[in-house]
Amino acid sequence: MSLPIVLTALIAFLLATTGWVALHLTVDAHHHRVFGTRIDAGRRLRLRAAGLACLACPMFLAVHAGWNASGLAWSLPLVAAGLSVVPCTVLRRWSPRAMPIAGSGALAAAALLTLPLAWGAAASPAPLVAARSSAPPLLLFGEVHDNVQQHALRLQVFKTLLDSGARPALLMEQFDREHQETIDHLRNASRGGVVDAQRLIDAATTPESRWAWELYRPYIELALAHDLPILAANVSRRDARLVAARGLAALGFDAAVPSDIARRQAELIVASHCGWVDEAQALPMAQAQIARDQFMARLLEQQLERGAVLFAGNGHVRRDFGVPRWLSPPARARAVSIGLLEEGDEDSGNAFDRAVTTPRQPREDPCASMRDKPVNAKQLRA
């Protein structure tokens, strides 16, 4: 086999690979961003044309090689082009929007999504987050509440962020807004070194709190150590029941809810309650989730000057029907939504600017108890 034939095959392989990559990007472009770059219709057409041109090149190379050689010269470039499907299949299964992370290397692997921050010139890169402007960003971190690996990953990102010099406000779904005054009082007292994170948790929660506080305490410790504002970002269960019964306007929230948001929130509630409520029953319950999203958005709007980090469930940080939908256009442009998903949930990764997939947290089937002992919608709202 002559060197020219081998070189021709190699060139054919590289061209075909480039073509498949370009076409892959046009498929993903309907999500509007690829590798952090906005893909409009014009760019999509140019990418598609470039991809098709690159895929056509191996055929011309095969014809050219066949002028002076045997049938091998005709076939080898085409075989090489066919092999290009292999790396591109791998590419299709990996996306910077939904990157799988597993095992002890999870934190190091997160650096694959590293982009620079904009909390000042001295800021160093931090995993998973990207600045869209020169102003401090609004970072919306999702979670599966009990996933230990996700908390470890997010804590490392938070530490890196603070080490870079950033001093954002910390918004936490885990605290109800009624406790903001208590949090502020204890945070001010902590400056004298007399308040620790556990004391703040005990004072700013009720005995009915269902959060696994051992997973959230490290965030609060970091916030206290760096003198960050800690903002209670949740609507209480009492207020949520009131909204579900009387509507959003009863507590001063925006009742003009787009139909797609109400529908998607209701669908999520039906799924999360294992089908024991139908969509008609779920719609009032969805109002409570919408109230939470609107309140979180209000708090983020108040932190545009210094920037903010929100820790909340994945459903709250989705760009399609979560908190970002309630942000003003300037705030939305600065918001970066990061979903922390579990294996099997990757299909929802496109609802976030960035998504990381971790192994599932071992847990009992949440629907098992409902199958054994059905409950009604009123019990579910309680």
How would you sum up this structure, described in words?
With 382 residues, this protein is of the alpha/beta class. It folds into 2 domains: 3-93; 99-168 and 235-381, no CATH class. The protein is 50% helix and 10% strand. It contains 16 helices and 9 strands. The strands form 2 sheets. The protein has a 7-stranded parallel beta sheet with strand order 3-9-8-4-7-5-6, with helices on both faces. It has a two-stranded antiparallel sheet with strand order 1-2. Helix 1 packs antiparallel against helix 2 (41-66). The longest helix has 26 residues, at 3-28. The chain is globular and about 80 Å long. This is Haem-binding uptake Tiki superfamily ChaN domain-containing protein. InterPro entries: Cofac_haem-bd_dom, DUF3325. Residues 134-327 form the Haem-binding uptake Tiki superfamily ChaN domain. It comes from Roseateles depolymerans.
Quickly list its features.
9 strands, 382 residues, two-stranded antiparallel ribbon, alpha/beta, seven-stranded parallel beta sheet
What is the topology?
Layout: H1 3-28, E1 33-34, E2 37-38, H2 41-66, H3 71-83, H4 85-93, E3 99-100, H5 106-109, E4 138-141, H6 148-163, E5 169-176, H7 180-190, H8 197-203, H9 213-225, E6 230-234, H10 237-246, H11 259-272, H12 279-301, E7 308-311, H13 314-317, H14 329-334, E8 335-342, E9 354-358, H15 368-372, H16 377-381
Parallel strand pairs: 3-9, 4-7, 4-8, 5-6, 5-7, 8-9
Antiparallel strand pairs: 1-2
Helix pairs in contact: 1-2, 1-3, 1-4, 2-3, 6-9, 10-12, 11-12
